[in-house]
Design goal:
This protein is 45% helix and 25% strand. With 294 residues, the chain is of the alpha/beta class. Strands 3, 4, 5, 6, 7, 8, 9, 10, 11 and 12 form a ten-stranded mixed sheet that branches. 31% of the residues are buried.
Length: 294
């Protein structure tokens, strides 16, 4: 009979495409994992993996079985979550994905209060790009996300928290430091820094301001902290959303106008999955913190 451990082991090996790494992730020995995979293949009467060099690849049968195995595990997890809902917050596990800016600014006091109030709940918080968070919520890897309103996927719903404007961060010695705001057309004549194109925020910036900034970006960085430190030390200006730029005597935030560009932060939930008591409680704390910070 196929058991849950067979499915968990199979899905993890399919994800890692490597038996040794999967064994480490599952905290079992490689020999145990290999034995369980052979047992599953015997039970199903077909090979699920091809051995390729040091790794493995799914066979056609494995590709077919993977979607069923994944759904089965999610259904069981959903049932366990529904039962947790009947209990208290004395124990549990909560997986949260959040974009870097909100992880660094919004979450720390929220998580500190939650962890102190519910020490039995294990929190796993990952700093991820927006689209990765959305996909993680959809496929069950995350219980809750903090990213942006208007998700791409139909199986993810968003709950708006607050909106923030795009700003230009400049050092106090910058030529634009005396301005109270800056028109988008002025950006074309500056040396700009921005995040790389893998981030949702950068794609939004390019869509709204591309005709002015396309030739003005001289530095792209994934780390906002490193970018802001570079801006402080040089003659660049950074195009970022306001919450990413902390109040500082060394940096000024100039709202960008004509047009004004906004994004809306949001909680992301799976459209059909049961929400655990821990997720709902943490979401309530996040809502309260977001309201205070507006």
């Amino acid at each position: 009979m196929v058991e849950l451990r067979h499915l968990r082991y199979f899905v993890e090996v399919a994800r890692q495409q490597h038996v040794t790494r999967a064994a480490e992730a599952l905290h079992v020995t490689q020999s145990t994992l290999s034995h369980q995979l052979r047992q599953l293949e015997d039970l199903l009467g077909t090979a699920l993996f091809d051995r390729v060099g040091r790794g493995v690849q799914l066979t056609e049968a494995g590709e077919t079985f993977l979607s069923f195995a994944t759904r089965a595990l999610l259904e069981v997890e959903g049932g366990a979550t529904a039962l947790q809902e009947l209990g208290s917050l004395a124990r549990g596990r909560l997986r949260l994905g959040v974009i870097h800016t909100y992880n660094a600014t919004l979450l720390p006091p929220v998580v500190a209060r939650f962890a102190a109030a519910f020490p039995g709940v294990h929190l796993a918080i990952e700093d991820l790009p927006g689209l990765t968070i959305e996909n993680g919520v959809a496929n069950g890897e995350l219980d809750l996300g903090i990213a942006f309103a208007g998700p791409v996927r139909d199986d993810v719903v968003s709950e708006p928290l607050f909106s923030e404007e795009l700003v230009l961060a400049v050092p106090t010695g910058h030529p634009c430091a005396g301005q109270r705001e800056i028109a988008a057309a002025q950006l074309a004549g500056l040396r700009l820094a921005a995040q790389t194109g893998r981030f949702s925020s950068r794609r939004l910036i390019d869509q709204a301001l591309g005709r002015w900034i396309a030739g003005a970006i001289h530095l792209e960085m994934s780390s906002i902290e490193a970018m802001l430190r570079t801006v402080r030390l040089g003659n660049l200006a950074a195009v970022l959303f306001e919450r990413a730029v902390p109040s500082s005597a060394e940096l000024l935030r100039l709202p960008i106008r004509q047009p004004t560009v906004r994004r809306t932060a949001a909680l992301l939930w799976h459209a059909g999955r049961t929400r655990s008591a821990a997720a709902k409680r943490l979401a309530g704390e996040i809502r309260a913190a977001a309201a205070v910070g507006q």
